[in-house]
């Protein structure tokens, strides 16, 4: 027969069971708390999982859009690269063409300058808006009497042209200057007679006036000498005509006056030399009168002829 436990043992066992029950209760509470936390964590995990799935889906959509955008960008880059390549090729071709054109233009300008500098006519290029001289050849510089650098960038009507500002024959007055006589002002203030031609030209894409001129000083001198020579020739011709006319008049006088004078003189000598009957004297006097009248008629005819000839050759009033 087993021994009954004592009160102390029972009390100790009760206390142990109470402690064990308390521990179980604490454990249960802890388990409930953990279960609650797990439930909350699970709910949070579900929410997070959903958010994560949404984020993953959104990222996948973004990655897909990014891939599409990247593909489109690559395609556009390839297209743009091809366009840039074609444009670069065209630009390179245009640059080469422009360089060839520039070289050709420089060569052409060099040839043109060489040609203009060998031309004997003076040539200046003028801006029609400002009337500033932008080009000049060697002949023009020599005629003006100043170096090219001094002539360039000067206003033409204050330097080489006598026209006043606002009265330019070519731009303001609308005159056609084609081999027109004018004057050129030189650097020392003198005037040189010239034959001027002005034509509009396009240089470097801009409108300009090309003015060419020839020094006609020698021609003017020759013309003056020719006028003097013609004047002297005319005066000599007149003198010759006067002398010829005087010679003709003298011959006519000799022819027309000689016979009457001979008759008058002969009969006058007969009358004065001896005594004649009255009837013979009357006869001789009649002959003398007749010859005198013939002489007077001849003198009047000669004077009339002289007056007509003088009026014809020199105008009235030269012969009285």
How would you sum up the major sheet? 5 strands, antiparallel
Strand order of the largest sheet: 2-1-5-4-3
Helix content: 55-70%
Radius of gyration: 67 Å
Give the tally of β-strands: 5
| Oligomeric grouping of the chains | single chain
Query: Taking all residues together, what is the mean pLDDT?
Result: 78
Percent in strands: 5-15%
**Number of helices, where a helix is a run of at least 4 consecutive DSSP H or I residues:** 5
The class by helix and strand makeup works out as alpha+beta
What string, H for helix and E for strand, traces the elements in order?
Answer: HEEHHEEEHH
Distance between the termini: 216 Å
Low-confidence stretches: 315-320
As for the number of domains, it is 3
Question: Tell me, what's the shape?
Answer: rod-shaped
């Amino acid at each position: 027969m087993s021994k009954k436990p004592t009160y102390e043992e029972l009390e100790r066992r009760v206390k142990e069971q109470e402690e064990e029950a308390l521990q179980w209760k604490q454990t249960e509470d802890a388990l409930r708390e953990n279960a609650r936390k797990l439930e909350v964590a699970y709910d949070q995990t579900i929410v997070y999982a959903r958010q994560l799935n949404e984020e993953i889906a959104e990222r996948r959509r973004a990655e897909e859009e990014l891939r599409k955008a990247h593909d489109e960008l690559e395609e556009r880059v390839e297209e743009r690269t091809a366009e840039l390549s074609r444009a670069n090729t065209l630009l390179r071709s245009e640059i080469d063409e422009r360089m060839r054109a520039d070289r050709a233009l420089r060569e052409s300008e060099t040839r043109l300058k060489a040609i203009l500098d060998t031309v004997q006519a003076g040539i200046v290029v003028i801006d029609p808006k400002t009337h500033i001289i932008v080009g000049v050849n060697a002949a023009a510089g020599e005629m003006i009497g100043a170096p090219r650098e001094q002539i360039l960038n000067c206003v033409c009507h204050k330097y080489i042209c006598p026209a006043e500002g606002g009265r330019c024959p070519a731009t303001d007055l609308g005159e056609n200057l084609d081999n027109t006589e004018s004057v050129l002002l030189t650097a020392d203030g003198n005037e040189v007679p010239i034959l001027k031609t002005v034509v509009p030209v396009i240089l470097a894409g801009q409108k300009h006036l090309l003015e060419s001129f020839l020094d006609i000083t020698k021609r003017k001198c020759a013309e003056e000498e020719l006028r003097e020579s013609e004047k002297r020739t005319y005066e000599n011709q007149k003198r010759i005509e006067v002398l010829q006319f005087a010679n003709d008049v003298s011959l006519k006088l000799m022819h027309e006056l000689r016979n009457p004078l001979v008759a008058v003189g002969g009969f006058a000598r007969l009358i004065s030399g001896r005594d004649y009957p009255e009837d013979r004297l009357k006869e001789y006097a009649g002959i003398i009168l007749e010859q005198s009248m013939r002489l007077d008629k001849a003198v009047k005819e000669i004077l009339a002829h002289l007056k007509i000839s003088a009026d014809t050759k020199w105008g009235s009033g030269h012969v009285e």
